[in-house]
Amino acid sequence: MIPSDFRGKVLVNEPLSNWTTIGTGGKADFLVFPEDADELLKLVCTLENSGVRWFVMGLGSNVLFPDSGFRGVVIKTDNLNNMIIEKNLVKVEAGVRLEALLRKAAENGLGGLEGLTGIPGSVGGAVRMNAGAYGYEIGPHIKGVLCVVEGELKNIEYRYGYRFSSVMDMVVVEAVVEFEERERNKILEEMEDFRKRRKKTQPLDRKTFGSVFKNPEGKKAWELLLEAGLPGTRIGGAMFSRKHANFIENTGNARTEDVISLINLAKEKVYEKTGIKLEEEVVVVKEED
């Protein structure tokens, strides 16, 4: 299953609750950490050829694993952490924290994505879903994406929309991000302003996976959830945050089942009140493909 010459760390029967920001999820048969892009490529090819189920995870935000766990191999991209700056372009690997990319760029006088400060995800995840906040999106800044495609590393034409991209169903290995040359301290000040804004409006001190629902066209999901009376609503150990209606908190003993039940309840209540069907932003991994 795992290549005999695999150099990275391998954890067996590892609780995924230890690796997701919401703190839920059963055990994965294997949780593995490829050392670099070539090892990631070889691993994915081996698993594909052997028919073993696999899933690539960045920092564990924006994802829900079943309470029954994952029968197969979960691949963590932590070791894909290289960054190279060339003028106003940064070539960055998928495992780099988005926050680390923004800070590295800022320290070199490169800005333009300050509004993404504080998003708790990896570059790979951000590129796949076209992460955005406060009117900023990473999509317009992506000038190249390297992905695993049919057993090779290939450059893919990047297209994007709201919480969508042309590489959503691919393994992102590396991206080229374009920044604007600006005054270093000004960038850092703006990043700090956005960080304070998040702290004031979001439950950053609780276990969450980020936003639950996408914003429907012309609407804000949190406003719809607030109107439907969801804040404070609890199922098991999962509760809609009173601080930000579009966040679900793990109050200490939540199961993925609790979270999904709460999501479904919210969709029903919002639809009954407004006729609007909310769509999840979080990725829900099924028990079987």
TrEMBL record:
GO biological process assignments: cell division; cell wall organization; peptidoglycan biosynthetic process; regulation of cell shape
KW NADP (keyword) present: yes
Active site: 163, 211, 281
Record protein name field: UDP-N-acetylenolpyruvoylglucosamine reductase
Alphabetical list of InterPro entries matching this protein: FAD-bd_PCMH, FAD-bd_PCMH-like_sf, FAD-bd_PCMH_sub1, FAD-bd_PCMH_sub2, MurB, MurB_C, MurB_C_sf, Oxid_FAD_bind_N
Protein's pathway: Cell wall biogenesis; peptidoglycan biosynthesis
Annotated keywords: Cell cycle, Cell division, Cell shape, Cell wall biogenesis/degradation, Cytoplasm, FAD, Flavoprotein, NADP, Oxidoreductase, Peptidoglycan synthesis
Cellular compartments annotated: Cytoplasm
Enzyme Commission code: 1.3.1.98
Keyword Cell wall biogenesis/degradation belongs to the record: yes
Task of the protein: Cell wall formation.
GO terms of molecular function: FAD binding; UDP-N-acetylmuramate dehydrogenase activity
Gene that produces this protein: murB
Cofactor(s) this protein requires: FAD
Organism: candidate division WOR-3 bacterium
Family: Belongs to the MurB family.
